[in-house]
Amino acid sequence: MMSARFRLTLQTRMILLMTLVIIVIIGAMGAVFSSMIAASIEDQVGKRALSVAKIMAHLPQVRGAFATGHPTQIIQPIAENVRIQTDAEFVVVGDRKGIRVAHPLPDRIGREMVGGDNEPALLHGQSYVSKAVGSLGPSLRGKVPIHNDAGDVIGIVSVGFLLEDIEAAIDSYQRKVLLILALGVLFGTAGAIWLSRYFKRAILGLEPEEIASLYMERNAVLESVREGIIAINRHGRVTMANKAAIQILGLPDEELRDRPILELLPDSRMPEVLESGEHQLDRESTIAGKEILVNRVPIKWMGRVVGVVSSFRPKSEIDQLASELSQARRYADVLRAQTHEFHNLLYTISGLLQLGSIQEAIELITSETSAEQELVLFLAKQVPDPLIGALLLGMHNRAKELKIQFSVNRDSRLKELPADVNRQQVVVMLGNLIQNALEAVGESRSGPNVVECYLSDAGSEILFEVEDSGPGVDDSIREKIFEHGFSTKPGERRGIGLAKVKGIVEEMGGYILVGKSEWGGALFTVSLAKERRGTHEAG
Description:
This protein has helices spanning 10-57, 60-65, 71-86, 119-124, 163-202, 208-224, 243-249, 261-264, 270-276, 315-354, 358-382, 386-401, 423-443, 497-507, and strands at 90-95, 100-102, 128-134, 137-147, 153-162, 228-233, 238-241, 280-287, 290-301, 304-314, 405-408, 450-456, 461-468, 511-516, 522-529. It is an alpha+beta fold.
């Protein structure tokens, strides 16, 4: 097995493979082009030689010279002039027996033409191109017969170019082709390097083995979690759905990949996240008769939204856990506040008794007991819901500990919440508003420290109002205070409460308003419809 030290990376393998492919392709193309260039040059030179020979054979002076007793005197100057003008290696003219009457080398005139390729012209009157070894060496020559007026063959013209000159021309063109091919390999390799780096970035620098491992791990994780998970791409088509999602949403147990999400879940809000690129966290939905809690998160790549992931689970499980936790926290807060308050009260009573002020001690005990009992009786009568009543009583004790006057408006009345209104969510919403009011009043350095809560179920809506004497909410940030993570207070884990409140109110089909209280602080008004409206969302 190759060690990790010597293992080739994906990028290196891609560069080597692509470079090899480029070299093979360009090499094959080079061989074809070289062959085509050689054939083309030979063809062009042959046609040129044949064309010059035809012109020479049809000159009247040449044809008439054979009727004289001394044709060489007429033909030799003409042949030399044609040779010089056409850059031919030789222009040779022979009589009907193949005896030279014109030649570039005068001492060879009168001798028989060599090469053995004259018969088709002299015997059959044909014009053609041939390769042969003549007196000047191997050459490519054009052969054309000379006819008299009667049409008889009286001679032959041979125009030739040496093969070594043709090969030199072919070599020159081939060198240019090789240069171009070398540049092609160079640029191809550079392109392969760029392309491999692009793919490397696209796959986040991972090797194929690592991608395969991550893919298997991802599948294992998705199937091991109890939450349902669905992902879509930028076209709104499903790219992944685990078994928990299929079970929770009651989807068909078949291949869901590449199917439109709106085809599977017509009321899905995932396309909205795809368009807006904003998170939707802890949203309540109802599908197939089941209440679920949904988170929708956009998938971003290089600043662009390329998909959405939605995770969800049955709300009953979350509600049970949240209820137990909320109750435990409320009990703890009430006990802590009461313990602290009663410690102070006991110290005061002890001091009065030691000073002999027995009547004052009795009056203090009576007033504290009656105030607490009065609030308990009022809540039991006007707000009989145990969860909301316990919340208000706990907040009252917490306010006493903070030296803040907390009261429930005596005109409040909330007899019973509708069956489809989630009581736990109402407690979370109201508790966040009151807690924020207590914190705002605690930070205020002037004026009364007052927080008041009003509840009403009169008419067709359920109304909650929480107002305080704190610094209030500036008009410039009224729209921002409900954004997740936005806060005017220092420290981490801020900007969550009001965002949670707004999400709960919107899920319950209500609205929330921010105004100014009679003490100059903030006034938060929440209105919930007694009858839920709108469609359920899923996914």
